[in-house]
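Pasting as-is:
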Amino acid sequence: MAVEDKYISYRTYLVAFFIFLMAMAIAVKLTNIQWVDGDHYRELAKQRTVKNFVIPANKGNIYSADGSLLATSIPNYVIRFDAVAPKTETFEKNIKLLSDSLGIVLNKPSSTIQNELRKAREHKNRYFLIAQGLSFTQYMKIKGFPLFNLGPYKGGIIIDQKTIREHPIGQIAERTIGYQRNRNEGYSDGKGIEWAYREFINGKDGKILKQKIAKGQWKPIRDVNEVEPQDGYDVISTIDVYIQDIAHHALLKQLEEYEADHGCVVVMETKTGHIKAISNLGRANDGSYYETTNYAYAESHEPGSTFKLVDLIAILEDKVADTSTVYDSHGGVMTYSGRKVRDSHEGGYGKISLARGFELSSNTVMVQAVYNNYKNDPTKFVNHINSFGLNKKLGLAFRGEGRPFIPQPSDKNWSNISLPWMAFGYGVSVTPLQTLTFYNAVANNGVMVKPMLVTEIKAWDKTIKKYNTEVMNPKICSDATLRKVQAVLANVVKKGTGSKLYSKDFSMAGKTGTAQMNYAHNGGMDKHYASSFVGYFPVDNPKYSCIVVVHKPNTANNNYYGADVAGPVFKRIAQKIFTDTPSTNVIKKLDRPNPKQDNDYNSYYVKAQKKQNVIPNVKGMSGMDAVALLGNLGLKVKVVGVGKVKKQSLQAGQNIEKNSSILLELS
């Protein structure tokens, strides 16, 4: 018995010893947690229950040249309710007043809201949705309501803020205005002005400290932010909203009529290089058109006959021929190294001058003029192209510029047909904006200016940075050459390939182009056309230059030429700019050597603006066009909807009464 008692005593001591060791281990561990690793675990707990959230800064606005908003940041608020936070006495005291106030703002019965709030408290809902999509004014109003005005801890209000980017003018110029987006991979990208000037637009993000209240649910710890966000700067663009609308709808109309694949139009101010309008429309599967790729800037392709201006300037500058030099078109077909060069006019043009060959866009005449004079020294001709900057990118601030290609005689792929093919715009590649820049230099008396889309960065009324016109080439050719070239470009419209566009009421100068695309691929089965027109207006004192390019027009009726497809867009833009938005610098009487020329914009404007005394039919017109027209007639215009005019409250033909109003319903 004594032995057994002794055995039990040993076991008791052993158990007690192990318990003592465990207690010591626990004490050591607790000591380590509290004193050695305490800071680490406290920080870990804090990270899991309290966290800083980013408050995106309000981006700066993008404005048009005339002060219209093109893109703006709108703060958007979501208000939720932590139904557990208020004390019972506080909740009961304010619940009725809060419900009444919310009922007015949310347009809901007060009793319904009160029942929802009581149910949220009963179910201990700490993230009950009150309202979302609120403006700053609505948010401030609700924040001041009874109970909510006590803050997040006593009143239970939870505020989530987001920033939404809006384009007030809709999809017009959407691709140029651009965007920024955050990718799932952790990086961001974008296009257009938004992306190119993001360092100014974005501002600096703020931070707000939030506490975790449930799985995936966080609420702010206090009313103030840890770091206040700093708004971005505003960007002032060169875009003119009215000219942009004209260009957009003129291009859209033609694309729809010809069922084209895509197209672009750019309108540029001659002296400054300011792009007043740029539209890039591509066709969707359903046949509609929308802004996709910036074709004017990104699409480098063979220009066709619009490139012939390079030929004419080079030839005249080198004095190897003159506009009066006569060439035989050889029946409209000539052969170079086994490859045929053809005129679009079957049978050719007989014997005509170089100037007339340009006006009629004769491939055989222009190729002869280049090949005969430069075949022994092609570098001399190509150097002219290089001096015009057509072998280099324009180098604007935007991503994705198309790469130009001008063959150089030193290249290993230079061949016997390189020179003659260049002469009529094949075997070379440039973007529409490059072509426009070149033609604009002719309109600007030889001064080549760089295209611009942004003029200023501003913080409210303070200028942060200003962008001035940049001269790329102070003189592309002599004044003598310029005078001859300008006369020939005017004759293209008066009596050349652009004669369908001629109007005695106002003058235009330019060049048509019709390029075959993909002619060398798949045996020519994928061949299609790019129709273009590039030029400037008015002829005597050019205010604007413009290029229009339409790709893959429907060739069913054999109407795919530049004058038929692209030319009407150019003419409509010129007409509407000078009919609806005349410039006093343009319409004033010009000092001309020949006053009988049909270029008097003053008389044309007076005739165009002569007031009617009856209501016009504006059905089918774009909303902006209809508003401008009716406003000029002295009517007060109200608009409902967006798009084209579907209905008008005053019928067409009835007399206009003073101070009368008209309601337009848009589709």
